[in-house]
User: What shape does this take?
Amino acid sequence: MKEIVLLDGATLGDDIDLSVLREQGHLTVWQGSSPDEIRARVREADVIVTNKCRLDEKTLAGAGKLRLICVAATGYDNIDVAWCRSRGIAVCNVVGYSTDSVAQLTAAMALDLVMHMPDFTAYVNDGRYTAGGVANRLFPAFHELRGKTWGIVGAGNIGHQVARVAEAFGCRVIVCRRRRDPDYETVSLEELCARSDILSLHVPLSAQTQGLIGRRELALMKPGAILINVSRGKVTDEAAVAEAFLAGKLGGLGVDVYSAEPFPSDHPFAALCGLPNVCLTPHMAWGAFEARQRCVADMAESIRAFFEGKTRSRVD
Assistant: This one.
């Protein structure tokens, strides 16, 4: 029987049915694994399933039986794919499972930041509305999305779904991507930054995208623009983003991903916690219940296909 090891089950949540993975072999679930623990836990593994663990020569050198790694994500920058390829270890990711979930959080962040929802709900919840004697409160001023320009960096599955949501709100959509988009106006990154009222990031982390939004790009953005990052933390210069917000350059900031997760107390965004017009979430955009269940089912299918000699969802 195949030995399947899930190294960081806590990242998938304890409400997800893993029976489809158990159908593929003997499944051992660890809630989390340090590098030293990984080395010990994968020695007899035929298949590794992981979401966030870093897998490379240091952690996998003793995994003599290992044939397949399944990443519970679309991005696989935590896997040394080149090293795996050199050892004949297949790597599979999961594509498309979280499109609606990530697009939904992106839209929620945009609405939260445009509408200043925490200010208005706090006004009611702390009793000021009841005590105020006025039927409504209209400060801070909020604005309609209709007529605003929503810029999207990376127009893949998620980017296109965000574009459709933005259009439903009446926004003009522009995109920045490597190839011309058949559905939306395609512009350079510089033009996108200069024109966008809302700018959202939906690109994988690579050598080309690391630090994509830095001081130069932030300086190009409109005063008061909203920046949303639901891709990878290192796609932005986080220190520069924090500085831009604190200096009043950005009107709103929504971030779900960080260069270190969870981010430490000395991270640039630690100084932004609790500030108005900042929406920081704990890397949960991908994780709607339905999306996580789809992710697990897709990995089970990739394991089945691999041991039947078929090629499915391979990135190696």
The first strand starts at residue 3 and ends at 6. The longest helix spans residues 289-307.
